[in-house]
Amino acid sequence: MTSTTDTQTAGSDRGKDASSESRTYGNFINGTWVSRDELIDRYNPATGELVARFADGTAADVHRAVAAARKAFDTGPWSQTSGAERGELLYRIAERIEAQVERLAHIEVQETGKTIRVARGDLAGVVSHFKNAAGLAWQTTGESLENLGPTLTAVNVREPVGVTGLVIPWNFPALILAQKLPYALAAGCTAVVKPAETTSGTACEIARICEEAGLPAGVLNVVTGYGPTAGQALTEHHGVDYVSFTGSTASGRKVIEASKSNLKRLALELGGKAATVVFADADLDDAADAALFAITFNQGECCVSGTRLLIDDTVADEFLTELVRRAEKLIVGDPMDDATDVGALIHSQHLDQVLSFIKQGVDGGAKLLTGGERLTDGVHANGQFVAPTVFDHVDPNAAIFQQEIFGPVLSVTRFHNEDEAIALANDSIYGLANSVWTKNIDTAHRVSRALRSGTVWVNTTIDGSAQLPLGGYKQSGYGREGGKHGLEEFTNIKSIQTRIGKRRHAYPHTRGPVA
Ranges of Polar residues compositional bias (predicted)? Predict the structure, then answer.
């Protein structure tokens, strides 16, 4: 096993706190860690320190991984094991992850720049998804149809779709992996995982945990590397039956093109531009807290971030005064400090993109209420930090209203009635999530039904559980992750019909003696 040439291995528990020593990982293919000379260096976005080195995977690496997954599915035991056996193994994996949450959370912080509090929450979610998938493995069934007449019976059975390619983004490396992988395994599929090139650590660590828990060789493979090489090779590979991709809408279009090689099935969880819709009768104290959380959670690097605040004009001035006061009290700094509220953005190119959107907001005439600049003093000196930013009076045609920013930048637009609020919320090419704030049950139901998004939160935001599916409308993609619906994504439905008794002949006039 050669996952490292440095100080820590993917299979080691050394450095429980994932210390400043860098980790080096190879690819995990057919139960073996395979090192490569070509490596991708990952620097901590908060400090600039080298924290990890990942194999720069090639198309050849992907081919070997898919071949291993193909063999494990076609001739190995995994797809033929009972749901109970798969569930028991998934639960063992969940327990092992749970025992290492702190170490895995520290790896997430070092590679992503997110705060340790958010990272711990992510890892708790990982455990929940593995446990939920374990339970679903026991419970997933087909259906029988007994009302087709006295001589015909039929069953619809769910079978694993086959070899799956799971492409993971950089913003929630462990959590989004867990929204896909355990459900694929619960269904009986095998998998090749391609994590983001900047944040592959927890995918490799979870692969190690799966191996130690007894997952057969070839069932799970991890190839790290860049999207145009390793990612492209995986999504266009003829040996892959199904791809589950999370990333930008632009990248999703490339996945669609690549999938045409063998018309493989896809699930795409893409961009978002969620609205937080606040009516005058809402609990404004709760709504202010939620609106701030929705845009600063994970530095705003979240597909369901409440990046647009739509506020009833009658309460807007008072609400925004309080919101800005709270925003200016947030602690932006060292992600490893439990007191920190907002960490560092993923890398310098993304920082520049966020700052470019802020400039567009200012140049476009929106009123900057707070923030708007990069932080460079003290603890921020070597990191990619942006102050939480709030714009008021944002035109619905403005870039900061329409385009996904993926940073702590809030665009505020006022409305005068319910119809206008709904129209503004739906004025987006995206449809992943929205939240509604009101104490009027009629308003809550009407608006929730009218919003064109896969998730609607009422009097809460960025909330949920492993039992609930996640997915989008419009250009936010299609397919669902998590829960029963997420598992069903990894299955094919086969109908088996059986005729009882002697067949009614279609051509009785042709009958003759039958030997």
Answer: 1-11
